[in-house]
Amino acid sequence: xxxxxxxxxxxxxxxxxxxxxxxxxxxxxxxxxxxxxxxxxxxxxxxxxxxxxxxxxxxxxxxxxxxxxxxxxxxxxxxxxxxxxxxxxxxxxxxxxxxxxxxxxxxxxxxxxxxxxxxxxxxxxxxxxxxxxxxxxxxxxxxxxxxxxxxxxxxxxxxxxxxxxxxxxxxxxxxxxxxxxxxxxxxxxxxxxxxxxxxxxxxxxxxxxxxxxxxxxxxxxxxxxxxxxxxxxxxxxxxxxxxxxxxxxxxxxxxx
Amino acid sequence: xxxxxxxxxxxxxxxxxxxxxxxxxxxxxxxxxxxxxxxxxxxxxxxxxxxxxxxxxxxxxxxxxxxxxxxxxxxxxxxxxxxxxxxxxxxxxxxxxxxxxxxxxxxxxxxxxxxxxxxxxxxxxxxxxxxxxxxxxxxxxxxxxxxxxxxxxxxxxxxxxxxxxxxxxxxxxxxxxxxxxxxxxxxxxxxxxxxxxxxxxxxxxxxxxxxxxxxxxxxxxxxxxxxxxxxxxxxxxxxxxxxxxxxxxxxxxxxxxxxxxxxxxxxxxxxxxxxxxxxxxxxxxxxxxxxxxxxxxxxxxxxxxxxxxxxxxxxxxxxxxxxxxxxxxxxxxxxxxxxxxxx
Lengths: 256, 343
Hints:
Distance between the termini of chain B: 20 Å
Order of helices and strands of chain A: EEEHEEHEHHHEHEHEEHEE
Low-confidence stretches of chain A: none
Radius of gyration of chain B: 21 Å
Number of domains of chain B: 1
Number of strands of chain A: 12
CATH class of chain B: Mainly Alpha
CATH superfamily of chain B: ABC transporter involved in vitamin B12 uptake, BtuC
Oligomer: heterodimer
Structural class of chain B: mainly alpha
Number of helices of chain A: 8
Strand order of the largest sheet of chain A: 6-7-8-3-9-10
Largest sheet of chain B: none
Distance between the termini of chain A: 44 Å
Low-confidence stretches of chain B: none
Number of helices of chain B: 14
Shape of chain A: globular
Radius of gyration of chain A: 19 Å
CATH topology of chain B: ABC transporter involved in vitamin B12 uptake, BtuC
Largest sheet of chain A: 6 strands, mixed
Number of domains of chain A: 2
């Protein structure tokens, strides 16, 4: 579905390239829910932006559905990958249904009129995320958790085989964190979409994800939660002075 | 969307108001002309007095069209800038277009005497002001476009536009400081703005620029809607951000630049009409907003022009003062009434 080969990510400056991570190899298959974890500033967002084609990568190759990512036109890219970003939509005056409808932009005509199919996809997205009751509200009336669901519905309306979410659980309480991640899990099984998301909720991710990508300063490891636990891969994510990974309870604990 | 039918009704109402205001505008003026004479002049070109025919066809009618083009053009530029920069304070002149135009005009009117070059009187035909104003706007536009090609960040363009505005304003002040009173007065009169005195030829040139600008804006409607999600989402939806930005800037410049060249720097309309319209039609969909703003701008300008003529007197007040005098209280009232302002 999507794969990265010997990928280097970072920024191009006049004075030379700033490499943030290199030699990244990963593969995400159809219908997989994949969590991306790592310490703050390690380059999770840069990796997500590079995989979603928003930011050019430095070296290596990303292919999606057997096509080179950078050879896709912006229209085709918009029909292949949808995103949910940490930034909130700039106009909170949008109504929920207007916002979700904007997900159909890559498919609509030159002035953006919604066809019957567009309306159907919007309705399906609303039903999948279960936000029928919010349809006519405006975004400024929503709680953070509700807004996150709406943004996920927008990505679903974009009807892409691949969805990337950057920290979809930030600002949410524990219940809504679980709610959003379970929703993502449900979407992968019900719609067979591949979903990649960055998160700090390692405990939740371990319970729900098919695959986990761990970003460290010098390397990127990927595998099923079980494999990674067996390899003891979680103990190196954070500095070890305050917290440690407890293999028995499969979670992080505070050092006492 | 459940509201669409209601919005269409409101659009129709606005359109009817444009026609109505245009008729009222034609029928009012320092010379009183009976209503049935006005209709017979408009539709059969016959009148009981020849001078009336001249007043209507060569003076009032071109002025009505100028008001419609100016009001709607400025309002559309304001809407484009507010959405592009996602800033409620943006208007048609944030890119420094009017300052560029002012500089051009200031150099023509005041520069000649300051630098002692040639005879100022020779230069001061209507067309020389139009050309100077267009050149001034064009120069600032080129500078802004060069800057925007270098920049990824749209907000930086807003600041650069403001900087160009202060720069040109500074040069104008220096020129004004050294100018004789007569020239200074002439410059100030230009800066008041004026809808009258445009020949049909000039109105048709204005109409061409207006038409091209509006057509460009219409083609941006879809992307303008996408921009409401922010540039990163827009990019992920396949919008080519810098191409789109370029088209929006060109459309704004064509509209605001040509209007400033022919009617002077008319303030307020561009900033206020989009806000007024959003209060009446609470939508973000540019498919509705764009036509609504076109009609709204035309209505506001026609009403202001009626007020500027001070019905029953022979004075005409500067249009620039009237737009703010009428518009500002309306905007303040609408916002206070709503209490909650979400842009």
